[in-house]
Design brief:
Layout: H1 6-11, H2 19-32, H3 38-50, H4 58-73, E1 77-90, E2 94-99, E3 104-106, E4 108-110, E5 122-129, H5 132-136, E6 147-150, H6 162-166, H7 168-171, H8 173-179, E7 184-188, E8 214-217, H9 219-229, E9 235-240, E10 243-257, E11 266-272, H10 282-301, E12 308-314, H11 322-331, E13 336-341, E14 349-354, H12 361-371, E15 377-378, H13 390-394, E16 398-404, H14 409-412, H15 425-442
Parallel strand pairs: 5-6, 6-7, 7-8, 11-12, 11-13, 13-16, 14-15
Antiparallel strand pairs: 1-10, 2-3, 2-9, 4-8, 5-9, 10-12, 14-16
GO biological process, one term: proteolysis
Organism: Sphingomonas spermidinifaciens
Subcellular location: Endoplasmic reticulum; Golgi apparatus; Lysosome; Secreted
Length: 453
């Protein structure tokens, strides 16, 4: 080409990309993710090939090995397992029977960390408490040799906000009953369904409190027990034989999309790989792992982002958020600038919450604009993060909460019914599209990202 033409071509050079160009790129990535296949494939594989993944067991260890291989095959960098020790509880025999004139079985499951009955079981009179507060008010020693039963019925909400209040019956009830001398405790499952599917979940016995047998009744069985109590005294024969395996190994699986500017910091996207052992952990939380990995993969395939995206598939969330705590202790010195987690099922995202500093309002506005076409509105709550990133956000890291519709979540949560068929592929893709848009914006945002003080 004649040299005389080069200056003319230079004068016609395209201008630097503008904000509108970035918005168009984000929109294109978001819309393409509505056809995503990665998230469902990951969810299907976790639930089918691995099944239940109780923390600290051989099944969870197999899941971590699978996760490392899968995330490596997807093309992520720095894929590895970060192990940590865990005191591991496993369930055993679980059965209960109303004895006497109205003899009948009850569907139930032991709560995590429950104590055990003798091998032959125990029998006791039921003492009924409609609420956890009623149990708290029982006189000390009044439950000696008896079985406490607490109803404390949860109600259905879109945002799952009732779980914090009604979940206290599971978290605190057994220790309170033990302190009052109870031989065992039964609770109404913390859920909103009407099936004979008990809801598992952990309870906590403070140091110095000997664990008593503790179990959740399926909701129809809890209601049946209430009706029987209305007819007169009730006795129940209960057998629970969980055991402690001692210290085993759990771990967090980490993978990254390396950023082109190390000084710009790290964006963490999290889920948890472990599950309770009654179902296959599809909505809690295989789908979450599929969502965050699929979105990160889409950003990676579109080119190198400014910030590093770190995927955290946490271990041992269900039994006490041990993976999230282990990650925080191991990485609290890393330059995290934003954290987000998908751990509330697979139904559509309906609200965006952030905890950004006032200087990041333009960033929050860009997120809201990109998510609006997906039917997502900007909320007014401060982002708190999921359990596995809550420590980061409490320490001052900015957060984004992409709030999923929880209307049916507690129908399935921690039950044998948490299986792949409950995942709606179309709603799952909407999640991936939202996460892809969010990551495309925050990972490439030119401004610093910080949390409100």
């Amino acid at each position: 080409m004649p040299s005389i033409i080069l200056p003319a071509l230079a004068a016609l050079a395209l201008p630097a990309p503008q904000a509108d160009d970035a918005n168009l790129r984000v929109a294109a990535q978001r819309d393409a993710a509505l056809d995503d296949d990665y998230a469902y494939a990951i969810t299907e594989a976790i639930t089918t090939e691995l099944g239940p993944r109780l923390a600290g067991t051989a099944e969870e260890a197999r899941a971590r090995k699978w996760a490392v291989a899968t995330l490596t095959k997807m093309g992520f960098s720095n894929v590895h397992d970060e192990p940590f020790p865990l005191r591991t509880w496993v369930r055993g025999t679980e059965k209960a029977m109303v004895v006497g004139a109205n003899s009948q079985p009850l569907a139930l499951t032991a709560l995590g960390n429950s104590g055990a009955t003798p091998e032959a079981g125990l029998e006791g009179e039921i003492v009924f408490f409609p609420t956890l507060d009623d149990l708290k008010e029982a006189p000390d020693g009044s439950l000696a040799g008896k079985i406490a039963f607490v109803s404390h019925a949860m109600t259905r909400t879109q945002d799952g906000s009732q779980y914090g209040y009604y979940g206290a019956v599971r978290r605190q009830g057994p220790a309170i009953a033990a302190a009052k001398g109870a031989a065992a405790i039964l609770i109404r499952s913390v859920g909103t369904d009407s099936h004979r599917m008990p809801h598992a979940g952990s309870t906590v016995f403070p140091e110095g409190t000997a664990p008593i047998p503790a179990a959740a009744l399926a909701i129809p069985d809890a209601e049946q027990l209430e009706r029987l109590i209305g007819r007169g005294p009730v006795r129940v024969a209960l057998t629970l034989t969980p055991r402690i395996l001692g210290t085993q190994t759990s771990g967090n699986v980490i993978a990254e999309v390396p950023g082109r500017d190390p000084a710009a910091g790290i964006v963490v996207v999290a889920c948890h790989l472990d599950s309770w052992d009654l179902g296959t952990g599809a909505i809690d939380d295989a789908a979450g792992c599929g969502i965050v990995a699929a979105a990160a993969k889409r950003i990676m395939d579109a080119g190198r982002p400014r910030r590093t995206i770190r995927i955290l598939w946490a271990g041992s969330e269900e039994v006490g958020v041990f993976g999230g705590r282990a990650y925080f202790e191991a990485h609290k010195g890393d330059n995290h600038v934003l954290a987000a987690e998908s751990d509330f099922g697979a139904d559509r995202i309906w609200r965006l919450d952030t905890n950004f500093a006032p200087a990041n309002k333009p960033l929050a506005d860009r997120l809201a604009a990109a998510l609006a076409p997906l039917g997502i509105s900007a909320g007014r709550e401060a982002a708190r993060g999921g359990a596995d990133v809550a420590a980061l956000i409490s320490a001052g890291v900015a957060g984004v909460d992409l709030q999923q519709d929880g209307t049916r979540y507690f129908d399935l949560h921690h039950t044998p019914d948490d299986t792949l068929d409950k995942v709606d592929p179309a709603q799952l893709r909407q999640n991936v599209a939202a996460w892809t848009a969010m990551l495309a914006i925050v990972a490439d945002a030119p401004e610093p990202i910080s949390a409100t003080k």
